[in-house]
Amino acid sequence: MNGLMMDRQLLVSSILQHAERQFADTEIVSRETDGSLHRYTYRDAASRSRRLANVLAKLGVTHGSTVGTLAWNNHRHVEAYFAVSGRGAVLHTCNPRLHVEQLVYILNHAEDEVLLFDATFLPLVEAVAPHCPKLRHYVLMSDSHAMPASSALPGLACYETLLEESSDAFVWPEFDERTASTLCYTSGTTGNPKGVLYSHRSTILHSLALSLPDTLSLSAHDCVLPVVPMFHVNAWGIPYAAAINGCKLVLPGPRLDGASLFELMETEGVTCSAGVPTIWLGLAQHMEQSDCRPSTMRRSVVGGSAMPPALIRTFMERFGVEVRHAWGMTETSPLGTQGSLLPKHASLPVDEQLAQRSKQGRAVFGVEICIVDADGNHLPQDGRAMGELMVRGPWIAAAYFKAESPALRDGWFPTGDIATIDPDGFMQITDRAKDVIKSGGEWISSIDLENAVAGHPEVLMAAVIGARHPKWDERPVMLLVRKPGRLLDKDEVLAYLAERVAKWWLPDEVIFLDGLPLGATGKVQKRDLRQQYGGVLLDAAA
Ligand code: AMP
Asked: Could you say which DSSP state residue 111 is in?
C-alpha cells in the first residue's frame, strides 16, 4: 500500500521560490572583481533569476540543454545556479583553474551551448572558443559600461543588457525530480576529467543534510560565507542550503586571501564558513600577524584535504572558531562525513577530543560508508583496519556522465581513499590510494606525517611523498615550507617527529621549499611533487 501524501517534486526552483516568500529582505552580498561590494536581497535574486530564465529561453536553451559558467562566487553566479537548473537545463560550472586543454575537453564533452562568464575570464574564453564548436552564445556577466570595445568572441552579449531587456514574469516549470540539474567535472590530475551529473532530487536532499545541526547548522540567524568556489561541487551546496534556511549569504568574489576574508567576515557579521585547509591557513596567518580574532564567526566546515590537528587547535583555542572537519568528493555532492563530536567525547581530555575531531568523521544520514580489502571483503570498524572507503546514498554518483565503464562496485562507489573506521563510526582517511607510501610491504600514512609536523611552531605547510628507494621500494620524503624568517633544519624536524611517529616512519629526506604546488581546487599537488622529487633517494644512493 502506498502512502497518501502529495507527490510534489523536489526541484531547485522551489528553493528560490521559498527564499523569496520567506526571506525576501535577507541580503546576498558579493565582492565584485574591483573590490567593491554589491548587495541585494533574495527578492532581487529571485526576480533577476526569472529574467535570466527568459533570456535563456531567447537564446534557445531548452529542457536538457547545458549552460556553462566560468565565474567567481558572486550574485550573478547565484542567479545562474537557480535560473539554469530551474528552467530544466543543466548548469555546468567550469573550473577556470583547469589547464586550457582540459577546459576545452569539458566544454565539448558537456556540449555546452551557452557560456556565462566573468570579465576576469575573457582572455581564457577567447582562447578556448575556437575549439568549442557547440558553443553558440557567449555572455559576459558584466554591466554594459564595462563591456570591452572589441572581442574575438562572435556575438559577445552583455548579461545586464540581456536582463534589462527581459521580463521577470516567468513560471518555473515542473518536471521529474530525477532530472539533471548541474554538472561538475572532477579536477582530474591524470587522464580527462570525469563528469558528475547531479539531479534536482540529489541536490535538495544534500542541501537539507548540509543544513543539519551537526553539519553546517544553518538557520535564518546565520550569515554564511562559502569560500569554497561555486565552480567546485556547487560550493559544497551552500548557495542552496543558505536559501533554504534564509541565511544571509556573503560571497567573496576573487579575493580569497586571509586579509580580505577577515575583513569581509567582520564587516558582514559572518557566523559560519566553509573551505579547504589552505584557505584557513591563510586566514590564521593573517589573524596571527595582525593580532586579531573574529568577532562573529562561530564555526567552519573544512574539507577537501586533511585539516592538520594543530590548525584545528589554533582555530578553536586561539580564535574561538569551532572547526568541523568534513570529508567528501565531487562524486558525493560532496558531503559524506563530518567530525562533530558525540556526547560521550565531552569527558575526554582535550588532546583526545582534538584527535577525534581531526578524523574525517561520521556519515551523515543518507550516506553509508564501509571499508574493504583488495578482494572486496568488508573490514572491521575497529579504528585500526585500513581499507578502501566505499560509499552509497541518494546523493552519491552512480555513474560518470557519458562514461562507458561502470562507476560502482557491488552497488557501492569506490572512493580511492584509504581509511579506518572506529567503533563509533568515525572515519579517518590515511591516504589517497595513490599517495600511500609502501615501504618494505608496510604502509606509511603521508597524512599522519604531515599532521604530525604541522604542529611544529616554525612549520607553515608540509607534504610527504613516497620516493623510490633501492631497498624498501618507497620511503617517505618530506617537502616543507617554513614560516617566514624561521631557520628550522632537517635534524630539528626529525627530532620533533621522532617523538610523535614510529621510528621507521621518519622521512629519509626533508627538503625545504618556498611553497607547495596547489591544484585547481587549492589542494597540494602530490603528483607534481612526486615527479620532481620521487627520485631523490635514488640520486642520493647512486
Ligand atoms: P574532489 O573530488 O576534488 O573534491 O576530491 C575528493 C578527494 O579529496 C577525496 O577523495 C579525498 O581524497 C580528498 N579529501 C576530501 N576531504 C578530505 C579530508 N577532510 N581529509 C582528507 N582528504 C580529503
From this structure: T
Task: Give the residue, out of 232, 312, 327, with the most ligand 1 atoms within 8 A of its beta carbon, to mutate for a pocket test.
Answer: 327
Kindly report, residue by residue over 73-117, the tens digit of the pLDDT: 999 999 999 999 999 999 999 999 888 999 999 999 999 999 999
Ligand 1 atom closest to the Cα of residue 303 is: 19
Structural domains in the chain? 7-25+37-211 (3.40.50.12780), 435-541 (3.30.300.30)
Distance CA 149, CA 37 (A): 25
Give catalytic residues, as residue numbers: 186, 331, 438, 443
How remote is the CA of residue 334 from the centroid of ligand 1, in Å? Answer: 9
Asked if 320 and 275 touch (Cβ cutoff 8 Å), the reply is no
Its pTM stands at 0.93
Give the residue whose CA is nearest to atom 8 of ligand 1.
304
Range of weakest confidence among 150-154, 375-379, 460-464: 150-154
Binning the chain into helix, strand and coil, the percentages to the nearest 5 are 35, 25, 40
- From ligand 1's centre to the CA of 451, what distance in Å? 15
Total residue count of the chain as it appears in this document: 542
Residue nearest to atom 20 of ligand 1 (CA): 306
User: Which residue do the cell numbers 542541501 mark?
Assistant: 207
Q: Is 329 in the pocket of ligand 1 (CB under 6 A)?
A: yes
Closest ligand 1 atom to residue 232 Cα is 4
DSSP line for 376-439: -PBPP-SSS--EEEEEESTTS-SS-TT-SS---BTTBEEEEEEEEE-TT--EEEEEETTT-EEE
What is the C-alpha separation between 279 and 261, in angstroms, rounded? 9
